[in-house]
Amino acid sequence: PFPGLYLWLYEHFPGFNLFREASKFFLIIALSYSVLIGYTVQVISDWFRKREKVLASYVLIVAASFLFLWNVKPLLTQEIGTLFVSREIPSDYLVLKNFIHSQEDYFRTLWIPATHRFGFYSSSHPAINMVNLTRGGWQEFVPFEGARDNWPDKAKIIDLLGQPYSHFVLNTASIKYVIVPSDPGNEIYKHYGPKRDFISFLDQIPFLQREQIGAKEVVVYRNPGFIPPIYVAEQIIRVKDQQELSAIFEHMSEGT
């Protein structure tokens, strides 16, 4: 009856964010209902029988049983969704898994805007995503202060790839592929904007090349300049923040 209550408690009630979703409370609720409903039916049935209204007590029991069966119906028909619905991995993600897993060298994949639940990653091919990066490890390189929001918008997500130092950041982070996921369940793009906008933006980035892997909806870009995690640098430069990094690359582009 209160669909927004759980999210509100998750975001505002101290300690409630330890429970990512509500299934952890199902057992407690089911146990409470089993005792309270049974006790209630028993009390009302006894009240009817004391007044010699046996038929009414039977009607009550049948009604309670019908209510139970009606509540079970969404589970049987899978209308309830979420954890109670069987899911199949889309073929595109199997193709992507085989494509990445077949490569022996170490590299990262960057998912834009976010990683899909069926996205493949491993210890030798870890996956990172732009939403988490703008709120975490790459905060200093994100021009938007609001990029730390829970649901950063499209401009905040893609702006990092439009900076003068973007190619350098992806290379040194060993990011070999940039992936725009398919989203058949609309779990990602409802928060961050249309998928086509991300693809249009990435198509315009000169250092990324479209990679044809045989997938229909998952779009993959290759970063040819990616650097292995262990390499010898010609020069070490300490950078404090995004402004200083931009200034360095502006000087480099001017040849100074």
From TrEMBL:
<keyword id="KW-0472">Membrane</keyword>
<feature type="transmembrane region" description="Helical">
    <location>
        <begin position="25"/>
        <end position="48"/>
    </location>
</feature>
<keyword id="KW-0812">Transmembrane</keyword>
<protein>
    <submittedName>
        <fullName>Uncharacterized protein</fullName>
    </submittedName>
</protein>
<feature type="transmembrane region" description="Helical">
    <location>
        <begin position="55"/>
        <end position="72"/>
    </location>
</feature>
<keyword id="KW-1133">Transmembrane helix</keyword>
